[in-house]
Design a protein that fits this description.
Number of domains: 1
Radius of gyration: 20 Å
Number of strands: 2
Helix content: 55-70%
Largest sheet: 2 strands, antiparallel
Oligomer: single chain
Strand order of the largest sheet: 1-2
Length: about 250
């Protein structure tokens, strides 16, 4: 299709609005808020990739353990195969707060990704549709990078003291690397389209999204699961968990 030019004012207005929205969400769902500020969640919604597309399903991935063994928590182990503690509803609610809050942010990315994927299915979008997708895609990449930088500076270093998943070069960090590489490629392409230096193609954007989409969706689930009550209670006593400064 013809070149689509997004003015710098359009892009900056969109980006500033996006950044402000993300910062506001960060304040509202700050990791330092007490768990009682949130409702009791016995499970979280997950959306799984099915076949070549992405569909949404409901699965109780973070429900309380049915294991009735005596609760043991040394607060220092990194052995994930240790017996799962049995948590009371109140304990589960406290331990699960980071997972609930993280899933709230991840839902924003899931919704935007779904919308981008839906828009990209149109082979010959109008110029207004192309401009809208370029702006949305640039917003998505900017917010995703900001989200990851915050996690890597303020959350992962604290949790990695005891939790292998959050250590550098392990599963979640490796997912970050692949996702960031894909988002960088997507951002560069959309910036070229926004400036009019390159023609916008939904075929190209589908290809770029396909390079990291599966990893992104796995990460959105895996990170929330790692922050879930059952997992967190393996590594932190209740008092230690309450004092975590993320």
């Amino acid at each position: 299709m013809a070149h689509v030019k997004v003015t710098s004012k359009d892009f900056l207005d969109s980006l500033n609005s996006s950044t402000l929205r993300l910062l506001c969400l960060s304040v509202v769902t700050n990791f330092r808020l007490a768990a009682d500020d949130y409702g009791s969640f016995s499970h979280l919604r997950y959306r799984r990739r099915m076949g070549s597309g992405i569909s949404s399903t409901s699965a109780p991935q973070l429900s309380r353990s049915d294991d009735h063994s005596d609760r043991q928590n040394t607060g220092g182990t990194m052995d994930k195969d240790s017996s799962k503690p049995t948590l009371s509803p109140a304990e589960f609610h406290i331990y699960n707060k980071f997972a609930v809050q993280m899933n709230y942010f991840h839902d924003q990315f899931r919704r935007t990704w779904d919308e981008l994927q839906k828009m990209s299915k149109k082979d010959q979008p109008s110029q207004s549709e192309a401009r809208a997708m370029i702006r949305m895609g640039l917003q998505f990449c900017s917010e995703l990078h900001m989200h990851h930088r915050f996690e890597e500076r303020h959350i992962y270093p604290v949790l990695s003291r005891r939790m292998l998943d959050f250590q550098p070069h392990h599963s979640l960090s490796k997912q970050h690397e692949k996702i960031d590489a894909g988002a960088d490629q997507m951002q560069r392409y959309l910036e070229q389209c926004a400036s009019g230096k390159q023609a916008f193609s939904t075929t190209e954007i589908r290809k770029i999204m396909g390079n990291f989409g599966s990893t992104l969706w796995s990460h959105l689930d895996d990170e929330v699961k790692a922050l879930g009550a059952e997992n967190m209670s393996k590594y932190w006593s209740l008092d230690e968990f309450r004092s975590l400064n993320l």
